[in-house]
Automatic annotation (TrEMBL):
CsbD-like domain segment(s): 4-54
Organism: Microvirga alba
Family: Belongs to the UPF0337 (CsbD) family.
PANTHER family xref list: UPF0337 PROTEIN YJBJ
Source domain of life: Bacteria
Taxon lineage: Bacteria, Pseudomonadati, Pseudomonadota, Alphaproteobacteria, Hyphomicrobiales
Database matches in InterPro entries: CsbD, UPF0337_stress_rsp, YjbJ_sf
Full protein name: CsbD family protein
Length: 58
């Protein structure tokens, strides 16, 4: 597991929390920020997974 996967997972979790809080309090801006952060985390996690796969291939 590399740095990208860890940071991606953290962003994904933080995004989920922001999204949930935004929904709960009716703050659409916070909810949207959470969705964006969650998507960024998923992408970063995927990139990290690809890097791991390439590194393990050698």
């Amino acid at each position: 597991m590399n740095k990208d996967r860890i940071e991606g997972s953290v962003k994904n979790i933080k995004g989920s929390i922001k999204e949930g809080v935004g929904k709960a309090i009716g703050d659409t801006k916070l909810e949207t920020e959470g969705k964006v952060e969650k998507a960024e985390g998923k992408i970063q996690n995927t990139v990290g997974g690809i890097k791991d796969s390439l590194r393990n291939r050698d």
